Amino acid sequence: MKGTKHIYYLLLYLPYLISVVFRSLPHSSYLIAWLGSFFIFFICFKGIIKKLPDDLPLLEQLLRPVFFLQIIFAGYMACTSIFYYINALGYEYLTFIGNKDFISGDVYRSIALCQRYYVLGHAALTHGIIAGMSYPQGKKYRVYAPSMSNLLLGISVICLPLGYLFSKVGSLNQFSIQLNGLSFVAGTIALSFAIRENKRVNLWAASGLFGLNMLAALGSGFKEPIIMCVLLLGIFLLPIYGKKVLPVLFSVLLLLFFVLPTFIGNFRKLSSEGTDVATARNKSLDRIINNDNLVEDLQDDNWEFLTGRLSEISMFMKYTESTPYFIPYYKTSLLTSALQTIIPRFFWPGKPDVEQMVMDRVYAANVVDRQSIVSAKPAFIVDCYLSYGGIGIWIGLFLYGYLSQNLSALAERMFGGYFMGTAVIFAGLFQILWRGNSLEFLLNAVFWSLITMFIIQKIFKARGILYKVD
Fold first, then answer.
1. CA 402, CA 446: separation in Å to the nearest integer?
2. CA-based end-to-end distance of the chain
3. Residue 467: in which H helix or E strand, if any?
4. pLDDT tens-digit profile of 75-108?
5. Do 30 and 85 contact (CB within 8 A), yes or no?
6. How far apart are CA 369 and CA 387, in angstroms?
7. Can you give the pTM of this predicted structure?
8. Where is 110: in which H helix or E strand?
């Protein structure tokens, strides 16, 4: 892609550099770094550094990394800390109530430090994505499908039971998450295509699959799968109905953000007491519907969610306070451990428990107590920091963005363009890149997703779904 102004890459790092200059003024430093992420979004989406892809209309390429992955990953990482900061100032929503506990002035320095690392990570991520962008991609293959909704429905229906079966077989469970993710994405897109093609049977079948996905998401104990179900459906409906979908989509997402913390809190409490998933899900919904003090409870639960669970800055602060002062940088040991996780347990029966490997550094930094049943895996940016500090964040997040962009581009070359390549295959197999994870889980998932992508391409070519362009 031509038109790159390489000197303009420095613009991405301006918020970080300015926030460092003001580091002696923690409140100013924090706000400069926090607002800096919006500045990065602005210069990226204005095409100031490199022209955005124009081979497709904007609404038909939203799942490319420069848009969806950057907004979800960087938005969650760098923008959600504002609620924690406001709470530390003594506010609940817009009302000043004071701090219930003693707050040292050092906490603001720690918040500002972590936010500076966040904006550095956002800049490096965007740098990597933009540096890797090269559109249009050459098309080596084309997709043959008389009915796209039939094809997508078939992918979803086949992958769903396969994913379940593979999860029960030790030597094949590496592929279960990838197949379930692909089934979810293909089924969601199949619903939008059934609407577009006005196929009643497909519409009912795809609606049923979407309903099953929503039920599974409601029973997962996590908010993200539920939100992703709705968000992806909205994105796929945008090319059909245009921008008039946006008010409905934003309204539904806002409602979910308001209600889900209470629902998930009730669900987890009931599950911890031994209630089965279906009963816990139904009782949690019933408690919301039949709650006489619903608004007050939702407000309290939401503020706790916004300040404690939405943002991970409080955990990041504990890591920066312990490393490198009490615990030295891990250097390359985390990467070495991550590479070991790729080896299937079938070939290495004595393979260390990955969850335990990750949690060891959580316990070492006193992020959670060893007796706690909570899993608090460090985010990818935290692992980068624990490895080499600020330089680790810059290298790690740049490579993250560059790799994500190139995986998306590879999928487009392998599957005949954006739609089947990025919107179906990349979105279905590499969902872990949207939010990130600890280095061990991330590297393992990306490697096996890549293997799965090559296997699926061979199947598509053998079935005549993909054919080579002369």
1. 14
2. 24
3. strand 466-468
4. 999 999 999 999 999 888 878 887 765 555 589 9
5. yes
6. 22
7. 0.91
8. helix 106-132
